[in-house]
Amino acid sequence: MLLKARSKLMMISEHGDERGYLTVIEGNKTIPFEIKRVFYIYGTKEGIRRGFHAHYKTKQALIALSGSCTIHLDNLERKDEIKLDCPTKILILEPNDWHEMYDFSVDCVLLVLASHLYDAEDYIRDYELFKSLHT
Amino acid sequence: MLLKARSKLMMISEHGDERGYLTVIEGNKTIPFEIKRVFYIYGTKEGIRRGFHAHYKTKQALIALSGSCTIHLDNLERKDEIKLDCPTKILILEPNDWHEMYDFSVDCVLLVLASHLYDAEDYIRDYELFKSLHT
C-alpha cells in the first residue's frame, strides 16, 4: 500500500499596486517541489469534466488564473470538492489523489505546475487499479 | 561588453479536443532553461506600462494566457514590439533585452516562466547603466 499524503490548499500573497497585480510562485520555495513542467487548460466546453487519473509520483500545483473551476479529490479515505477561483489560491495536489476537474467558467484558465516531465507511465487512469494500489 | 543573444518568438502546439484546450511547456525541453520561478501579471490598469528593466542572467518565457499585451524589446542594436495574444505564442526573452510591457487588455493574464529565483541584484533598472553595460 502506498503512503497517502494530503493535498492541501494554500493562499499566497499578491503584489498589488497602482499598476495592477503580480503573483509569484518559486519552485521548492513557495511550493514543495521543483517546477519541471507547466501546462494550462482553457477554452473548456460547458459541462465538461476532465482529469480522471492519479499519479505515482507527480505532484502538482493548480491555480485558476482567470475564472473558476472545481476540483474533485479522492484518496479513498476522503473525498473533497475544492473551488479554485482566484490567482492567489493554490491547490497542492499529491500524486495519490484521484482528481477530476469540472464546472469550468467560460473564461477559466487553469494553470498547473508539475514536479515531473510528462511520462505516460506515471498516470493511473483506471479507478479499479487506483483502488487496488491504495487499499 | 556583454554578449547579445536575440529574444525570439516561438509557437507551440496545443492539444485540442472536444473538451477544450491544453498547452504544455516543459523546462529545458520546450523552452531552453529550467523553470525556477513562475509569475503572472493580471488586473493591469488601463494605460499602464511596466517592466523597465533588463537582467544579467535571468531568461524568461512570456505567454498571454488570456487577452493580449505588447512587449517592447531593446538590446541597443535593435528595438522590437511584439504582441502576445494567444496561449501558444511564447516570447523567449533574453537577459540582455531591456523590456517594457503595455497595451494590456482588461482580461490579460501574462504568464512569465523564469530561469532563476528572484534576486534583486539581477535587475538592471537604470537605462544608462544598461547602455554602459551593452556598448
Main features:
five-stranded antiparallel beta sheet, 12 strands, globular, Jelly Rolls, 135 residues, homodimer, 1 helix
Describe what this molecule looks like in 3D.
- The structure is a homodimer of 135-residue chains.
- Chain A is mainly beta and 135 residues long.
- Chain A has a single domain (8-133), classed as Jelly Rolls (Sandwich).
- Helix content of chain A is 6%, strand content 47%.
- The radius of gyration of chain A is 15 Å and the shape is globular.
- The A-B interface holds A 16, 18-27, 29, 34-45, 48, 50, 65-66, 87, 104, 107, 109, 111, 113, 117-118 and B 16, 18-27, 29, 34-45, 48, 50, 65-66, 87, 104, 107, 109, 111, 113, 117-118.
- β4 (37-42) of chain A pairs antiparallel with β3 of chain B.
- Chains A, B: Pfam families: FdtA (PF05523).
- Chains A, B: Residues 7-133 form the Sugar 3,4-ketoisomerase QdtA cupin domain.
